[in-house]
Amino acid sequence: MIEITKAGYHGIQLPQFNIGFDYSGSRAEHVFISHAHADHMPRNRNVDVFCTENTYKLMQKRGYKGNATVLKFGETLELPTSKVTLYPAGHILGSAMVYVETDEGSVLYTGDYRTPPSPASEGFECPDSVDHFITEATFSLPIYRWAGHDELTDEVTGFAKHTLEEGYTPVFLAYNLGKAQEVMHMLSSLDHPIQIHGAGYKLCEVYEEAGIELGNYESYDRETCEGKILVTTNSALNNGFASNVKKKRLAYCSGWAARESSRTQLTVDKLIPLSDHLDFFELIELCKKLEPTRVHITHTPNANVVQHYLDELGIASRFLDLETETDD
Ligand SMILES: [Zn+2]
């Protein structure tokens, strides 16, 4: 029997095997970081971890000072009582799922993931069989079903083109790591100058080194931004980003844009439900394919809904409530 417990703010631990996932406390000797989003990076910026090279580079640009042992996808690390292999998670560049094989069975920790994968990532791949599947379920309600990549690309590029044609400056509201670069990748075919907020700009270099095309872009400059395609976050916009540009139109790019209520919470011209997580139906399909002994669900708006669907498939599951954990 493999024990899987919560550890720290967003972390998970396999105490028998001295392994932690997205954890930075002292209770696990081997800590694996799935990706460089703030809620998965080690809270202790000096702790030593294992991760992919691109996650390491992105974490360093976001203030991580510790030592990372870099693992390639598919490379197996032999630990005293387990073997660990990273699989590409398709969420953002560098994102990895952690597969642990032990005498007691196997565990796959997803971190955040997306299948089909983001084209601005290393793709998605998972092992053939898993005993314990620890999965995020951020969009695990049947109201979330994503459009295909081509359709979303058309929405993004179409919004930019029409806005520019009408003499307005298009502004894409997208999180500065992952979503921003995916939107830029989609826009690169337009060959129109792009300006991205400085917090996202410094991360673009890692994407370019990885061979992801981001188009003709530069860092945001208030004096020259008018008429360019702008990429920034909602909070930067509220803090004066491009406030001097009077004729602009806003597109909000997020899985949350699928909710009709987003319209009342945000004053934007266009909602584009572009997510870097998988949707509800993709999650259930993956569980069907993997046939795990048990699914451990994290980050969900309502665990009962996923559990109901998994019950119907005869797959055992439990809810691992990470947000309320404060013991570390
Ligand atoms: Zn993430």
What does this protein structure show overall?
The protein is of the alpha/beta class. The chain folds into two domains: 5-143 and 277-319, Ribonuclease Z/Hydroxyacylglutathione hydrolase-like (Metallo-beta-lactamase, Chain A, 4-Layer Sandwich), CATH 3.60.15.10; 149-272, 3-Layer(aba) Sandwich (Rossmann fold). It is 23% helix and 24% strand. The chain contains eight helices and 19 strands. The chain has helices spanning 53-61, 149-165, 179-187, 198-209, 234-238, 262-265, 280-290, 303-312; strands at residues 5-7, 11-14, 19-21, 30-32, 49-51, 68-70, 76-79, 82-88, 96-102, 105-109, 132-136, 169-173, 194-196, 217-219, 229-232, 248-253, 270-272, 294-298, 316-319. Strands 7-8-9-10-11-18-19 form a seven-stranded mixed sheet, covered by helices on one side. Strands 14-13-15-12-16-17 form a six-stranded parallel sheet. A four-stranded mixed sheet has the order 1-2-3-4, with no helix packed on it. β9 and β10 form a beta hairpin. α1 (53-61) packs antiparallel against α4. The longest helix is centred in the middle third of the chain and has 17 residues, at 149-165. It is globular, with a radius of gyration of 20 Å. The chain starts with a strand and ends in a 9-residue tail after the last strand. The model is unreliable at 324-328 (pLDDT under 50). The protein binds zinc ion. It comes from Halalkalibaculum roseum. Keywords: Exonuclease, Hydrolase, Nuclease. GO terms for molecular function: 5'-3' DNA exonuclease activity; damaged DNA binding.
